[in-house]
Specification:
It is a single chain. The chain has helices spanning 45-48, 55-62, 73-81, and strands at residues 9-16, 19-26, 33-36, 39-42, 52-53, 67-71, 91-93, 96-102. The chain is of the alpha+beta class and 104 residues long. The protein contains 3 helices and 8 strands; from the N terminus they run ββββαβαβαββ. A hairpin with a 2-residue loop joins β1 (9-16) and β2. It has a single domain (9-102), classed as uncharacterized conserved protein from methanopyrus kandleri domain like (uncharacterized conserved protein from methanopyrus kandleri fold like), CATH 3.30.1860.10. The protein has a 6-stranded mixed beta sheet. It has a two-stranded antiparallel ribbon with strand order 3-4.
């Protein structure tokens, strides 16, 4: 996340069977849809939640994560700084950084 704005993301944890999915997005993206070519991403509260989170919250949630989705500059930067995403693997859709993490 951005150090100067610690509550810039929404965070939601989904669990099923053996998987723990962490979804994090920049707050300013909620309710928006981005498209570029055949790629599209829609930011909805059902998936990303409406609970604001800090860097510490995201770091704590990622300890048990088997899958994670990060959408937006702050969420993706935080994932990179925490070591879950390599900058070379960030996808940009209509100017919005997007990344995923999967534990194999």
């Amino acid at each position: 996340m951005c150090e100067d704005a610690p509550d810039e993301i929404y965070l939601k944890i989904h669990t099923s069977d053996r998987n723990v999915l962490v979804a994090a997005c920049d707050c300013g993206l909620m309710g928006k849809k981005f498209e570029e070519g055949q790629l599209q991403v829609e930011i909805c509260s059902d998936f990303f939640g409406l609970e604001k989170a800090t860097t510490t919250d995201l770091e704590r949630a990622m300890r048990d994560a088997t899958i994670a989705n990060f959408i937006g500059k702050c969420a993706v930067e935080c994932a990179i700084k925490l070591g879950y995403v390599n900058r070379d693997n960030v996808l940009v859709i209509d100017g919005v950084p997007c990344a995923q993490m999967v534990v194999m």
